[in-house]
């Protein structure tokens, strides 16, 4: 259980939770092991509405383009994945494939299990969802920064070329 609690403490979803609340949440997670190259989530798969948190190792996030698969990001321990379907988005909105890099451990939380806390611990649900939103906001900020840097490079503006 300490792997789960230690991982949750590095994640944005527990920033507002007490130790007791983290323990309640930790009881809902499953730990999954993957070998290097294993697919964790792929577009078009029968995807559960799970939230994934990387506990150990790295995960490559790849998208398919006309030139083949391209790595767009590498997740590090504590990073989240599967947020779109976890918050209720359609699996058709998922365009990235997640690959394990080396031996990888991932925490997996089924949305159905998480929703059992709505009546018994509504503040945990609220605070976790705020953490998910903070994580998504961080991703959008990073992508906006990278987009601006690429634009500066392509159009040779702001002296950055």
User: What integer value in Å does the Rg equal?
Assistant: 17 Å
The named CATH superfamily? Jelly Rolls
User: Total domains, how many?
Assistant: 1
Question: Rough shape?
Answer: globular
Task: From the 3D structure, determine the CATH topology.
Answer: Jelly Rolls
Sheet with the most strands? 6 strands, antiparallel
Q: Any guess at the CATH architecture?
A: Sandwich
Strand content: 25-35%
- Structure classification: alpha+beta
CATH class call: Mainly Beta
Low-confidence stretches: none
Ends distance: 49 Å
- Average pLDDT score: 89
H-E order: HHEEEEEHEHHH
Our count of helices gives 6
Helix content: 25-40%
**β-strand number:** 6
Q: Can you tell me about this structure?
A:
- Helices cover 39% and strands 30% of the residues.
- The chain is an alpha+beta fold.
- It contains six helices and six strands.
- The protein has helices spanning 2-9, 19-26, 83-86, 111-115, 117-120, 122-155, and strands at 30-34, 39-41, 50-65, 68-75, 80-81, 96-110.
- It has a single domain (2-155), classed as Jelly Rolls.
- 23% of the residues are buried.
- The protein is globular, with a radius of gyration of 17 Å.
- Strands 1, 2, 3, 4, 5 and 6 form a six-stranded antiparallel beta sheet that branches.
- The chain starts with a helix and ends in a 6-residue tail after the last helix.
